[in-house]
Amino acid sequence: MRNILIAIGISILYSCGSSQNSSNTGSSSSSKAKEDKLDVAYYAETITSKELKDYLYTFAGDDFEGRDTGEPGQKKAAEFLKEQYQKMNIPSPMGGDNYYQEIPESYFRGGIKSSENVLAYIKGSEKPDEVVVLSAHYDHVGVDSKGNIYNGADDDGSGTVSLLEIAEAFVKAVENGQEPKRSILFLHVTGEEKGLYGSKYYTENPVFSLENTVANLNIDMIGRIDSEHDSDDKRNYIYLIGSDRLSTELHNLSEEVNAKYTKLNLDYTFNAKDDPNRFYYRSDHYNFAKHNIPIIFYFNGVHEDYHKPTDTPDKIEYDLMAKRAKLVFHTAWEIANRENRLVVDGIGKE
Ligand SMILES: [Zn+2]
């Protein structure tokens, strides 16, 4: 999550909109086990608090030096993500072992070096050109002048490792012959903390055209509990922002899968149009929403360790985080497998 003091600063519009459609093969095992279709809940159960914890203790460890955009720690984090997708046999939409969308130094302001988004995808079986984008930023704010490392376990290690677990759930389904009908893009964006650069660059240089981008589900901070919910009867929650703004169908679908599977309290406090925090504009989904692509932003709210060196993996609520990641998975599964793509009926209602 981007700090609001930076978020309300100036941004410069670039437009260099070359886009390329991918036609790589995404799956290799569609032939087997077609007859044994399993319920989506089976795949959701592969998202576990233990695996999330294992991933996060590495990803938000000191070795990654706070993942500052363009710096060695961020590069190391990118390499880690690429390795996980390769281990899961999930290909890059760019082909071969190129999982990076390079963003040149000239794109950034303020002396930031070149950086990269990390992309992996699962090819849809029926409508491969239509894509559901699952995003999380993997950069954070680095190390301060005293040498304190900002591990960013919640911000946004939590979203990053959740994408890995959601990807694993999808790939298990693929291995059992249950490819999603539409493609799923796992988009790990860089430069969020510096100004939503990675998502902006991706939407100006999309790998799948924006016209065929059905929805963006963005996860930024889902591992903690804010002060509003810090009691046993309130902790089973997640804030949803933006779900009803562009597509009523998306909002309803999200409510339905939650009621059926995850049963979290979906808190819409920050979805209010006059919310002074302006969270709708403060993470990467906004770069999709501004192109009229329906989005949902998943968020636990701010807490005392937000943008401090104390945002560490030992403070994460792993069971709750797993439940929240499952909600994103179920929502993505439903969007990807619906007969028709989401109806966008909210344009101009802002
Ligand atoms: Zn942040």
Mind explaining what this structure looks like?
- This protein has a single domain (38-337), classed as Zn peptidases (Aminopeptidase), CATH 3.40.630.
- It contains ten helices and eight strands.
- It has helices spanning 4-7, 40-44, 49-59, 72-87, 153-175, 192-195, 197-204, 248-262, 286-289, 318-337, and strands at residues 100-103, 115-122, 127-137, 182-189, 213-219, 237-241, 265-267, 295-299.
- Strands 1-2-4-3-5-8-6-7 form an eight-stranded mixed sheet, sandwiched between helices.
- β6 (237-241), α8 and β7 (265-267) form a beta-alpha-beta unit.
- The chain starts with a helix and ends in a 13-residue tail after the last helix.
- Bound molecules: zinc ion.
- Zinc ion is lined by residues 1-2, 155, 193, 307.
- Zinc ion (ZN) binds at residues 1-2, 155, 193, 307.
- Can you identify the CATH superfamily? Zn peptidases
Radius of gyration: 19 Å
The total strand number stands at 8
Number of domains: 1
How far the N terminus sits from the C terminus, by CA atoms, comes to 23 Å
List bound small molecules: zinc ion
Report the uncertain regions. Answer: 9-33
Number of helices: 10
Largest sheet: 8 strands, mixed
The proportion of residues in beta strands is: 5-15%
Question: Helicity range of the residues?
Answer: 25-40%
CATH architectural category:
3-Layer(aba) Sandwich
- Mean of pLDDT: 92
One letter per element, helices H and strands E, the order comes to HHHHEEEHEHHEEHEHEH
CATH topology group: Aminopeptidase
Walk across the major sheet and give the strand order: 1-2-4-3-5-8-6-7
Name of the top-level CATH class: Alpha Beta
What is the general shape?
A: globular
The helix/strand class is alpha/beta
